[in-house]
C-alpha cells in the first residue's frame, strides 16, 4: 500500500516536472483529451453513436474538468514560439485581453453543458453542445494558427 502510494507520488512528481519543462507538450496533451471527449459527445448528439444519458453526463463532467486545465500551461516563456515542442499558439495570446475572455466564456458554456447533461434532455443538450463548440472555434480562430 505504502509502496504504491510512493510510486504514485513519484510518478506525478515526474509528470509535473516534465510539464514544467515543456508546457507546450502539457497543453497539447490536455487538448488531445478534449478532442477525444468532445468527439464522443458529438457522435452521441448526431446519433452516430446511440445517445446514453449517463454516459453523456459523465463525458460532460469530464469535459468540464478538462476545461480548467490547459490555460496554466501557457506561460509567457512560450510566447516566442521558440519552445521545446512545436506550437500552434499565436503570440496574441499574451498581448490581448480577449484571451482571458475566450477562456471564461468557454468555461461558462462547458459548465452549463454539464448541468444540461444531467437533465438528460437531448434537445437542450444539442443546443448547449453547439454553444460549447462555438467557443472552441472562436478561440481557435483568434488564437491558433491554421
Ligand atoms: C481559450 C482558447 C481555446 C479554447 C476555448 C479551446 N482551444 Fe483548442 N487550442 C487552443 C490553442 C491556443 C491551441 C494550440 C496549442 C499549441 O499548439 O501550443 C489549441 C489546440 C487544440 C488542439 C490540437 C492539440 C495538438 O495536439 O496540437 C485540439 C485537438 C484542440 N485544441 C481542441 C479543442 C476543443 C475540442 C475545444 C473545445 C471543446 C477547444 N480546443 C477549445 C485554444 C483553445
TrEMBL record:
Signal peptide: 1-20
Post-translational modification: Binds 1 heme group per subunit.
Sections of the chain in a coiled coil: none
InterPro entries with a match to the protein in the record: Cyt_c/b562, Cyt_c_II, Cyt_c_prime
Stretches that traverse the bilayer: none
Pfam families linked to this entry: Cytochrom_C_2
Gene Ontology CC annotation, any one: periplasmic space
GO process annotations (BP): electron transport chain
Ligand binding (heme c): 136, 139-140
Alphabetical keyword list: Electron transport, Heme, Iron, Metal-binding, Signal, Transport
Protein name: Cytochrome c
